[in-house]
User: Fold this.
Amino acid sequence: MTNVPFVMGNVLSSDDFDACLAIVVCRMGPNFYAHLSHVAGHYKGDASGIWDRSRGNGAPEGTAYEIKPLTRIHGVPEVLIGPDSPEGIAVSHRVAVMHYLLDMG
Assistant:
């Protein structure tokens, strides 16, 4: 699979990449969509170009990383996402979402 850029608020060292997974989530109205990815390394391109087609005000704060998708994008039931959280998926629900995405493939 091809590496794709991704921005996270956390700053990772090169030692962290092998063990780091990311749940990439998008909310469209009442529906949640997500896929699981492996964080492969620091993004080597021009990170400002990542967000040219995004809705909103451009790139979020944070460091850009390359990710390798491990699953397809799936609709995720709201009950698995958990309560609203500024960090995206509630910490208490992340393992459940990860297993759901792995089960879905």
Observations:
- The chain has two helices and five strands.
- Residues 1-7 have pLDDT under 50 and may be disordered.
